[in-house]
Fold this sequence. Notes:
Blueprint: H1 10-21, E1 28-32, H2 39-51, H3 68-74, E2 81-84, H4 101-121, H5 137-147, E3 157-161, H6 169-180, E4 186-192, H7 200-203, E5 207-210, H8 216-226, H9 232-242, H10 246-261, H11 264-281, H12 286-299, H13 302-324, H14 337-346, H15 352-367, H16 372-388
Parallel strand pairs: 1-4, 1-5, 2-3, 3-4
The chain binds zinc ion.
Amino acid sequence: MSWDNIIGQSLQVNILKKSLAADRLAHAYLFSGPEGIGKEAVAFELAKQLNCSQRSPDPQKGSCDICESCLQATAFLHPNIEYVFPVESVLLDQIDPSKSENKKFSEAKARYEALIEQKKRNPYFTPVMERSMAILTEQVSDLQQKAAFMPSGGGRKVFIISQAEKLNQSAANKLLKLLEEPPKHVLFILVSSRPESILPTIRSRCQILKFSRIKPAEMEAWLSAACPAADEDILRFIVSASRGNLEKALDLSRSITDQAAMTLPGLELRNRAIDWLRNLLTPRRLQEAIRETEEMAKNLSRQEIASMLASLLLFFQDINHRRIDPRWEGLNNPDLESSVIRFVQNFRKPDFYEVSVATETTIRSIMRNANPFLTLSAYAIRIKQLIAG
Ligand SMILES: [Zn+2]
């Protein structure tokens, strides 16, 4: 059932299914491979299946997705499933409510929860707290304590350690101790896109499962099922812009299909984005563009900024099409045809592929809580350089 939700990775999934069927799962895995290809999605599916209360004896079937346990797992509330990633140390401090530090704690907690929310929406998302460099010792101590208790509901405890290369030294040593004498009822899944940075002694205690890049055809099939409303060109564009990264693809497809729904506020945002772009590229109107950038960063939500940028992506796509084929009729924004033509005439050299990549990177940064003004300013400089030289 839920294994069907995993895109690609059939080789890796089959290895896990076979081990499950033979009841021969390793006690610790290291899922390695590039970012955004579904390593954690597979880890969560395995954790869900091990705890599903209506688990079929046939491991091919996966979890039921509807029992209490599966629902808890999907909501990140399962008592047997721990998800660890680098967090800000203030989250782990003992907090005295009478101190002003408490405010810092609750702010950090809100940031943490926002990341978990994002993870729920996008299983390929890798949460990163801006002010955090490492997985801290306290986080592993917490796992150590939790490992001492038997799992509830007859399932199995699963500890998923995201970005395992970021374990700090003492956290890594603590984890090593756990891995040296692993409790039978705990399954460790370390996930890393830089496994070479993990202590060799930890690596050697894990069964390594290497994940591969998603093939364009697999991604296109998945996207067309996920966004039935999007047309083929947009899908192909997302596939090429995301370069096998499912996290990017899902973010992009959402921004673009939201945009494609083109409500009136969406249309206003699009027009504002195009005006901003025009000002940016017209030397005597640069001041206006800077003012507008400040204004956007101050008054728009992250979603609105992302939506503006997504509409620029579609505009760039139109320019690119028209540059290659001046008679191209399938414009995303037929009402902007004259602007598209002017762009093609005025800016002959730019690599709109690079422009698109810069745009989608900026969308992701904005959605990942980067400072809107700094991010938009850096983006402005970058595309001005790419387009106008
Ligand atoms: Zn279930």
